[in-house]
């Protein structure tokens, strides 16, 4: 077998990279995790903007595989803020002594497959190279920042920030802030900043349907109940459609009368969580247009009820389908009742340019600002893979392979890229991420274990695993068919890549649900790693 530096290189030290490191080390492999940040955390290291919060209940935004730690590790509220998520991941790394396998402040600049020696060579930002049998990318769905192409951006004399790379400290007191973008990040940062700044102007093109999070303190009684039911909680989550801890509805919207429909919506609104409101109330909101309009109308009535200024309220009323990533908040709409918070509808009155002093809209109005905040999201899912050269067999790059749109087998493997495994790659499931990450990491570690076992029989044989082209095409067709009737597909958003100018919209997720995805992976394993070539 070829000489290598380590058995596996793992790129990224967030949820996926940390668990991959542990699984492969537990298998007796040598592992090197490389991370661009100075410490662990991944997305939760960089996304430290004010108000950054998980939209998953705290009990399910963690790992399931350490029952003792689940019972011992404490959190105070139903939803975790960024510092708490980061502290938890740092705790896990320390608890399992994983930091010894990690190299920080180090980026992967390029990677190439050596067909002669059957190994990966990874070029690091330090200029050094590392070789390995396996390359596992745990770079996250949302990491390549997206800046809109607005004339004059470089002319602005004030401070400019992107929420995906926030400074360690900031002071916005007595400053005028412009926030461009109002997805999950925009909603959170507007809610957090509104009370501390002199003026906040939200520039919105697509107002969102935002449901209360229902955030509250976790009482000792509730925590005792959770600690007694951890196995049940995780079994339910991993065998559900979304993995958010609630039972998805099987009731069609129009199978109940209007009064009952209103009662169900109201109950979900008070309970909180955007995914619960969309999928826990009725089963057809995401694909039945009339059902979707019923949910829309309920949320719109709540917006008008919460926002006292009718002009602001109408600007906050969404015009699209209720079919973007479901959002939840801790007081977003109420912030627009403050006299220092305003909203500009940039679909009706687009941004013409950024000036040295602020933002000028098409009608000639200029907003004088001290700070510009871009909450404009990311080139999601495949963006990070295409910004660096990753070369497979015949020296063909991953970017070239995905020129007509990203494809993978099961969201983890790509034909012609042997021993490359992706966590949360294209066409993985649209779900709560930690349970999905666990399922994928366990699947990938199984593939690596089986490849090593096969290679051990013949010392001259290299362990190789590669997705079959036909299996990949079939999986892509499945993902396309499952999303065909979804209203998510009829709405411009990052879920189908429509948020990035010039990017061809494509199917980026498997909409069959977490439980079905888990069954597919189990079937692949039970049928001798069906869909993979092993050598």
UniProtKB/TrEMBL annotation:
Organism: Talaromyces rugulosus
Entries under Pfam families matching the protein: Pyr_redox_3
Full protein name: FAD/NAD(P)-binding domain-containing protein
InterPro entries assigned: FAD-binding_Monooxygenases, FAD/NAD-bd_sf
UniProtKB keywords: FAD, Flavoprotein, NADP, Oxidoreductase
GO molecular function term, any single one: oxidoreductase activity
């Amino acid at each position: 077998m070829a000489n290598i530096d380590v058995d596996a290189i793992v790129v990224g030290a967030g949820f996926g990279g940390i668990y991959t490191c542990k699984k492969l080390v537990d298998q007796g492999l040598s592992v090197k995790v490389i991370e661009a940040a100075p410490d662990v955390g991944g997305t939760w290291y960089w996304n430290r903007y004010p108000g950054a919060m998980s939209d998953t209940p705290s009990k399910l935004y963690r790992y399931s595989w350490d029952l003792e730690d689940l019972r011992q590790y404490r959190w105070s509220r139903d939803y975790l803020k960024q510092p708490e998520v980061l502290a938890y991941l740092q705790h896990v790394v320390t608890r399992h002594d994983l930091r010894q396998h990690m190299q920080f402040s180090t980026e992967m600049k390029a990677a190439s497959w050596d067909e002669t020696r059957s190994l990966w060579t990874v070029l690091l930002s330090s200029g050094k190279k590392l070789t390995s049998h396996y390359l596992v990318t745990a770079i996250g769905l949302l990491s390549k920042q997206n800046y809109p192409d607005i004339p004059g951006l470089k002319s602005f004399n004030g401070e400019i920030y992107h929420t995906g790379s926030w400074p360690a400290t900031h002071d916005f007191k007595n400053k005028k802030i412009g926030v461009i973008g109002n997805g999950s990040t925009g909603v959170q940062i507007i809610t957090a900043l509104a009370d501390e700044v002199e003026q906040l102007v939200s520039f919105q093109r697509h107002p969102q349907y935002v449901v209360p999070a229902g955030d509250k303190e976790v009482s000792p009684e509730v925590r005792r109940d959770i600690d007694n039911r951890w196995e049940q909680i995780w079994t339910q989550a991993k065998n559900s459609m979304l993995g958010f801890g609630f039972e998805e509805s099987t009731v069609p919207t129009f199978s109940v009368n209007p009064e009952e429909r209103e009662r169900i919506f109201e109950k979900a609104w008070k309970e909180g969580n955007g995914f619960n409101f969309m999928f826990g109330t009725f089963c057809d909101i995401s694909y039945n247009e009339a059902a979707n309009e019923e949910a829309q109308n309920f949320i719109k009535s709540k917006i008008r009820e919460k926002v006292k200024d009718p002009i602001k309220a109408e600007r906050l009323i969404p015009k699209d389908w209720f079919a973007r990533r479901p959002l939840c908040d801790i007081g977003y709409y109420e912030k627009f009742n403050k006299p220092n918070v305003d909203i500009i509808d940039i679909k009706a009155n687009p941004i013409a340019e950024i000036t040295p002093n602020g933002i000028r809209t098409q009608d000639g109005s200029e907003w004088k600002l001290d700070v510009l905040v871009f909450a404009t999201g990311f080139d999601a899912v495949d963006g990070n893979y295409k910004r660096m050269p990753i070369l497979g067999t015949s020296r063909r790059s991953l970017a070239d392979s995905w020129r007509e749109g990203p494809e993978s087998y099961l969201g983890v493997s790509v034909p012609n890229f042997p021993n490359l495994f992706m966590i949360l790659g294209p066409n993985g499931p649209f779900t709560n991420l930690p349970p999905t990450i666990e399922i994928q990491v366990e699947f990938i570690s199984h593939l690596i274990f089986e490849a090593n076992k096969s290679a051990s029989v013949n010392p001259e044989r290299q362990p190789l695993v590669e997705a079959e082209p036909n299996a990949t095409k079939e999986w892509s067709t499945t993902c396309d068919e499952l999303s065909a009737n979804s209203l998510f597909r009829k709405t411009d958003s990052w879920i189908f890549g429509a948020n990035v100018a010039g990017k061809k919209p494509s199917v980026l997720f498997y909409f069959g649900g977490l439980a079905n995805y888990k069954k597919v992976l189990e079937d692949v394993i039970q049928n001798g790693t069906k869909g993979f070539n092993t050598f």
